Amino acid sequence: MNTLLYVTLDKTERIPPETIRNLHDVHVLFLDLSESGIQSELPDSWKRLNSSELFDPDMFRRDFLRFLEEWPKKAIFKQQCFDELFRLRDGYSVWWTSVGAVRTPSNSNVKMLKQLWVLDRALQHTKVERVVLNGRSRELDNAITLRCQRDSILVERNGRTLSTKATSGVVGAKWLAMQLVQLTAVPFKITTLALFVRILTRGHQESRSTRSAPAILLSPNLSRLVKMTDAGVEIPFWDAFLNELKKQFPDVRQKFLLFPKQAKKGHWNMVRWLRDSGAELLDKLDGALPPAERSTGLISWGIALPKQIAALLRFYRIDKSADFRSSFTFANANIYELIIPALGKAVSNMAEWEREVGVLTTTFSRAGNIKAVLLLAEFYRPSMRYIAAAKRLNIPAIGVQHGGIMPMHLVYTVPQGHVGGAPIPSYFAVYGEYVKDIVCKLGAYPEDRVWIAGCPRMDVLVNNVAGRASARAKLDLPTDKKIILLATHTYRTYPWFIQVIKSVFQATADQDDCVVCVKTHPGDVGMLNTYREAAKHSGNASVKFFGDHFETLLIACDFLISGSSTTVLEATLLGRPTICANFSEEPDRFPYVDDGASLPARDDQELRRSIETLLSDQGSDQRKMRREAFVRRHLGPTAEGRGAEAMVQFISPLLSSHVN
C-alpha cells in the first residue's frame, strides 16, 4: 500500500469527509500544521504525526535567524550583496528595516516558514511518495512543491497534481511602472493630508516657555492605551510610572505624541480619528502634541527621490537574475515567492522612510527640550522610524516591555544584523532577568543597555489590592463558592481555545460549590453566543460572562484558567493559582508550567486533573513557593511593588543634569 502524507496548513476544525473517502485505500500519515488542534477521529488507515515531536523551537529559531543573517550578505549582483546595494540614510539596511525585522510568530510569512520547516523535517523522517496539501497559499504551495521535487515526491491539492518550473521573476515591467506612477502621487496625497490635519488641530500649539522646559516624550502607540472618561484622561499602562516621575521630577514635562488606535487602516485614518475623537483627546490630555502628520516631509522625500528611482531600477534588473531568484533557500526549499513581495515593497518605500523620519525629526525638534523618547514595540518596524528620528537629534530612545516575551517571540531574539543594521533603542526596560537573557543571550542586544525595571503598571497588584470580598460584592458574585476565572483568547491567537472552554464547562458542570466567570477577550466578543451555547450544551448553569472588569475579576477569583499570555503573569503576581492551557501540539509559548507558576492542561483529562487539584487545595504551600520564585525572576522590582520607582531611577540620569 502506498504511503501518503496529508498536511493541513490553514485553520480548520475537521478533515473534509470527501477527502477521507477519496483516500480510503491509502495508508495516510496525517500532519496538522494549522495549529487548529484538530481532534476528530481518524480512519484506521490514517496515522497522526505529532508536530511537536518534529518541531524543535531552538533549532527552528537558529535556522530562521541564520537565514535572516546570511541572505543579505550573499553576492547577488555584480559581486555585491543586498546590504551593499540598498541602504537608507544614516546607514540603515533596507533588509533589516523590513523583511529581517518581521519575526513575529503570528506573522503569516513566519508561520508559513515554520510550516515549511516542520514539513521538511517530516519528509526527512518518513518515506512517502505523495503529499496532499490542504491550504490556500499559492506561494507556500510552490515552496513545498519545490522542496518535494528535490526527493521526487508528487504534490497534490484539490485532486490536482502541482508542479512548478524554475521560479520566474515577480518584479516585472508592470511592477516597476506602478511604483514610478505611485511616486508621482505622493506630493498631492501628503500635502492634502497635512492640510486636513492642520485644520483639525488648529490652536494646539505650545507656548515658548512650555517648549523650553525639560520633558520626556511618549510615542504614538501610547494612544492605543488611552481611556477618555467623564473625569478626564486615563493612561493605565503608564500612570504608575508617570505619577512616580512627577513625584521625583516635578519640573519635567510629560508630552504625548498620539496616533489612531486603528493605525493599520492608513494615513487617512488620522483624519477620521481627529474628526471623531482625536481632537477632543488633544484638548483633554495635558501635554498632548499635535500629530506629526501636520508636516509633509516633502523636502526629505524630494532629496531621497533620485536614490529611490535608482533603487527601483536596480531591483528590477536584479530580479531578472536566476541566481538572485534561487538565493532564497530555507528548509531545503526556494522561498523566493514568499519573500519577494515584502522585499519589493521595502525597496519601493525607501523615500517614504526618509520622509517619515524627516517628519518625526521635525516633530521632536518642535516639541522642545526633549530628554528622552519612550516607546513600546521597540524592535518592530513601525517604531524604528521614531528611534531613527530621536537618534538624529541625539535623544535617547527607551524601549519599554509591554507584554510577554519568550524565546519563540523571535522579534526579541534580536540578531546581530538587526543590531548593526536597524535603529534600536538606546536602552530597553524589561520586566526581569528572564527577558534580559532572551534579548542578550539568545539575541545580540547589548547587556549594558538593559534596565531590569519590572512592570510599573502591575505594581498595583502588590501595593493596592482590594479585598476579595469587596471585589465579589462589586460583581455580585457569591462569597461561599469557588470562583474560577476563564480568560478567553481570539481564534486567531489560539484556534484550539474553544475546546478548552468547552472542557472547563463540562469539568465543572457537576461542581455545585464553584462558579465559572468567563472574561471575553476584547477581540473575541463575536464568539460570545458560541460560548453561551457551549455552556448550555454542557448543562453547566453556574457560568457568568463578562466583557470588562478583568482586574476586579482577578481579585475576586480563586484561580485562573487561560492560555499562555500576560493574563497568567498578572494572576501569578497577585498570588492566584493558575492553569495554563495548551490543547495544540505546539510547545507552550511562555514557561509558566516549566518555571512552576502554573499547572498544565495539554488535553481534556489533564485540565480536569488540574482543576480538581486547585479546587481541593492540594499542595498549595509548594505551589505558593514556586509562584514567588517565578515572580522574582520574571518581574524583578515589581515583585515588591517597586516597578515604577525602579523605572524612574533608571531614567533619572538622563534628566538630573538638566533639571534644577
TrEMBL record:
Family matches, as InterPro entries: Glycerophosphate_synth (IPR007554), TagF_C (IPR043148)
GO terms assigned for molecular function: CDP-glycerol glycerophosphotransferase activity
GO CC term (a single one): membrane
Superkingdom of origin: Bacteria
Transmembrane segment boundaries: none
Protein name (Swiss-Prot/TrEMBL): CDP-Glycerol:Poly(Glycerophosphate) glycerophosphotransferase
Originating species: Stieleria maiorica
Highest classification ranks of the organism: Bacteria, Pseudomonadati, Planctomycetota, Planctomycetia, Pirellulales
